[in-house]
Amino acid sequence: MTEPLLRITDLQKSFFGVKVLHGVSLTLDRGEVMGLVGENGSGKSTTMNLLGGVLRLETGEILIDGVPYNPRSPRDAQEAGIAFIHQELNLFENLSIEENMFIGGFPRLTGLPFIARAGMRRRAAAALARVRIGHDPATPLARLSQGERQLVEIARALLQDARIIIFDEPTTSLTHRETSRLFELIGELKASGIAIIYISHVLADIFRLCDTITVLRDGHVVGGGPASELTAEDLIRLMVGRSLSQIFPDRTPVEPGPAILDVERLSQPGIVRDITFQVRAGEVVGISGLMGAGRSELARILFGLDPFASGTIRFAGETIPAPEPRDMIRRGMAFLTEDRRGEGLMMEATIEENIALPSVDDFASAPFGRVDRARLRRAVRQIGDEVRISRTKDVGETPAQTLSGGNQQKVVLAKWLLRRPKLLVLDEPTRGIDVGAKFEVYKIIDQAAASGAGVLMISSELEELMGMCDRILVMAHGEIRQEFARASFNGERILEAAMWSPKTGEVAA
Ligand SMILES: Nc1ncnc2c1ncn2[C@@H]1O[C@H](COP(=O)(O)OP(=O)(O)OP(=O)(O)O)[C@@H](O)[C@H]1O
Ligand SMILES: [Mg+2]
């Protein structure tokens, strides 16, 4: 048997005396696409950070082409032919495409003789052509979409002759089209012999892309093998440790109450047009649409983050001429934005402090305004348990920065839930959250509605909307194109409505 391109044996890793990897072993061949899956906090990113030189190896061994490899920095990894495409891209907005491509890997462009510069330019252009970036390499990165930026990172990996490319949840901010382009490109990279490790919570993508799958649970490899021999149920059972009989909880029947949110003919030029809809108490209303359809923009206007030119917004019976976030929060609106990082977790503060902070006033008792700490603490812990932030960590002692990516997102969600809002606006609420925890989040959404809150839920996962919503509004090009009631949900027809284009008045190709 020939030696695989990558052999990882018995990787162990502890943070502050707590072991999070308990001996991870895996192999990867040339041209293999391996899916790496597991619940939030199972050790996927940690394993890849060891491989990518972000973390130092403690115990265990990594062989590349049979040669021991022990990176001290990301630079070492790069020299060994390992490229790591992080979820947060490592690019500089104020530099050009070309400058970004040469950063780190090559000496400064300006200091080089003309010939070398021309040669490097040619190579960069070739790499950009391979990922089909049509822009002039001198274009500032700031002008590129998220998807294009990711392609630039891949081009940089190609330029550096990467043999192994790691993708850590790469599709979370890509449009449909960009995602397809990425998948096509992964196919081409594979065909040229590059090996790929692909981390994702979207199992459909894992099955579409990967030859083999490795499943982590609590820092152990608990199973895997050729993708063709595994089903989604197998993966879920391996990840969660039990089978999930249901993806969505049964919705609690509720008789909808009065409208909590009542929007009439809301317009903002170039953003949204003539938006009219209501969310009633006890209802879960979904907004479907393609990336760029104006869904998040609409939510931002409702919350007062962006202005609107005409139309009316009524919240809990009162007309709000110019919404302002602080005031909307006080009135009982909660808004989980799609940009979880921008929401600013206090990284050094504990989980508990992060969840409690915006609610402290709610737990102050009249007349002296003293905060009932015990009650606050109980409530925080209960919410923390509900979203299953961590089975092993003490919420009162653990700083937010030590949580895995998905668990940090749950802290943000818990923060809002603690306020028991009248209207919960959720933009991509389960993005980055593992299958087991998704079910918990859905249960929380159902509970919120059952207890009389209205829920407005934006999601790119149509299944999730169809599983949870009473009604789905479909947006395209800033307009609500169609509304579907639960009884008449139809995935194909919803997609069709989402693809409407104003140019032709027809479905876009
Ligand atoms: N810098 C750190 N300090 C302390 N603990 C950490 C640190 N980084 C990660 N951990 C812990 O290591 C464990 C594995 O985390 P890791 O980020 O590898 O999970 P993951 O599988 O990538 O999860 P997700 O799907 O949420 O991204 C978690 O329990 C996490 O809290
Ligand atoms: Mg991770």
Supply Rg: 24 Å
CATH superfamily of the largest domain: P-loop containing nucleotide triphosphate hydrolases
SS elements, strand count: 24
* Main sheet overview: 6 strands, mixed
Number of self-contained structural domains: 3
Backbone structural class: alpha/beta
Q: What number is the mean pLDDT?
A: 87
Given as residue ranges, the uncertain stretches (5+ residues, pLDDT < 50) are: none
Gross morphology is globular
What's the N-to-C terminus distance?
48 Å
Helix content: 25-40%
Query: Largest beta sheet: what is the strand line-up?
Result: 6-7-8-3-9-10
* SS element count, helices: 16
Question: Could you describe the 3D structure shown?
Answer:
The chain is of the alpha/beta class and 509 residues long. It has three domains: 6-240, Rossmann fold (3-Layer(aba) Sandwich); 256-332 and 422-436 and 452-509, P-loop containing nucleotide triphosphate hydrolases (Rossmann fold), CATH 3.40.50.300; 342-420, no CATH class. The chain has helices at residues 44-51, 74-79, 97-102, 114-130, 146-159, 176-191, 203-209, 232-240, 295-303, 325-331, 351-356, 373-386, 405-417, 435-450, 462-468, 491-498; strands at 6-15, 18-28, 33-38, 59-64, 67-68, 82-85, 164-168, 195-199, 212-217, 220-226, 259-268, 272-280, 284-289, 310-315, 318-319, 333-336, 364-365, 370-371, 423-427, 454-458, 471-476, 479-485, 500-501, 506-507. The chain has a six-stranded mixed β-sheet, with helices on both faces. The chain has a six-stranded mixed β-sheet with strand order 16-19-20-13-21-22, sandwiched between helices. Strands 2-1-4-5 form a four-stranded antiparallel β-sheet, covered by helices on one side. A hairpin with a 2-residue loop joins strand 4 (59-64) and strand 5 (67-68). The protein is globular. The protein starts with 5 loop residues before the first strand and ends with a strand. The model has no long low-confidence stretch (mean pLDDT 87). The protein binds adenosine-5'-triphosphate and magnesium ion.
